[in-house]
Design goal:
single chain; about 300 residues; mainly beta; Lipocalin; 1 helix; 11 strands; elongated
Length: about 300
């Protein structure tokens, strides 16, 4: 029976998740457990765009791009086609990136601090998700769950716009999706998955000055905002057995989440009147290539 379970597992692995790749066999009458480890390369893109109002009104964009290495750990329990999966992604080593800002005055205004600037920062990230799903034994899979993602930027140098403030961005919420697996027998299986996510998002800063900096006419306080990010993720995964109870996976995954029309306030010290920010949009893209191993527990 174990060999039958594994053969189904090895040739019909289902890439089941909007937030990662999870695996389950076709429906069977026995409870099974699967442990997985993948390593990958992830291209991260994050951008915000906004318009400030009042005197000194300006268009402002904040962005960074970075390539990181990521380790992905997963655990799955399945029974008669139903399954539960937990996955945890971590960055083994932080990366140095540049947080960039571009400010342009609104026509007819003079921006307080126009131009381009950047600040070196240390980038760190963690993600985890929980997924429940059902595989009908004919290649189709339906799944949904909860995901959480957070990145942190720690300042490595001072500049006027960002000063020495640290930034954090959090996304968490629910996703729902489906996948289809084309079984090629003993050769392996190819799975395409797609999911929609609706996530609460929040941008915040720490190490914010509480009083004007020495020799500075203006000192920026905290920039913080929250919203709802929505978007799609797509996955393509090849999987095949390599030994009894073992399988390998090769995967590609793309996700793109956006929030629109947010509002925020930016304090300027020593002024008691903050700058009002409107039309605040964010976009977060991830592109991941990964290879991994899966083991079905006896």
């Amino acid at each position: 029976m174990k060999k039958l379970i594994f053969r189904r597992f090895a040739v019909a692995i289902v890439a089941a998740i909007a937030s990662g790749f999870s695996v389950v066999p076709h429906a069977d009458e026995e409870i099974g457990y699967i442990a997985g480890l993948s390593i990958g390369v992830r291209e991260v893109e994050f951008r915000t765009s906004s318009v400030s109002t009042g005197v000194g009104a300006a268009f402002a964009d904040i962005s960074f791009d970075e390539t990181i290495y990521v380790a992905m750990f997963s655990a799955t329990v399945f029974y008669e086609g139903f399954y539960l999966t937990a996955q945890y992604d971590l960055v083994p080593q932080t990366e140095t990136t540049t947080l960039e800002v571009n400010v342009e005055a609104v026509p007819g205004q003079t921006a307080f601090f126009p131009g381009n600037d950047g600040r070196r920062s240390e980038y760190d990230r963690v993600d985890f998700n929980f997924t429940a799903g059902f595989n009908n034994g004919k290649g189709w899979n339906l799944f949904g769950g909860y995901k959480y993602g957070r990145w942190d930027l720690e300042s490595l140098e001072f500049n006027f716009l960002f000063q020495n403030k640290d930034q954090q961005f959090v996304e968490d919420g629910l996703f729902l999706g489906g996948s289809y697996t084309q079984d090629f027998g003993d050769i392996g299986a190819l799975t395409f998955s797609m999911a929609y996510a609706s996530l609460d998002s929040e941008f915040s800063e720490s190490k914010v000055p509480s009083e004007p900096l020495p020799n500075a006419d203006l000192t920026l306080g905290e920039l913080g905002f929250s919203g709802t990010a929505t978007g799609l993720s797509y996955g393509l995964q090849w999987s095949a057995g390599i030994a009894e109870n073992w399988a390998y996976t090769i995967g590609l995954k793309f996700q793109d989440y956006e929030s629109k029309n947010g509002r925020a306030e930016l304090t300027i010290l020593p002024s008691p009147n903050p700058i009002l920010i409107r039309d605040l949009d964010t976009e977060h893209k991830d592109s991941t290539f990964s290879v991994g191993l899966m083991y079905i527990l006896d």
